[in-house]
Amino acid sequence: MASKELRLPVGLPQAEQDRRLERGAREARNAVRLRAHENVVAVHDVVPGGLPWIVMALAGGRFLKERLDTRGAAAHPSTWPPNGCAEPSGSRPVTCSPSA
Question: Which one has a higher pLDDT value, 76 or 13?
Fold first, then answer.
């Protein structure tokens, strides 16, 4: 399990605090509705009071910094498709030659 606390910057106007808290609650409710989707972390509970906490499944994986250190940044869309790859067509995926 993992928990996430919604944190607000010090000095944020009350109206903006309320807006951000509502947005966080809305995002958590939407995540609960999508809990069966394989690409969405399962949210188990939202704990209200003060700043809310979201209790969710712990997702495996690496830190973004590790990914960037080993593979570099993703290509900018203007460089798509990469050299050696053909544009997708219809329902066919992108295909690349072995040297790409």
Answer: 13
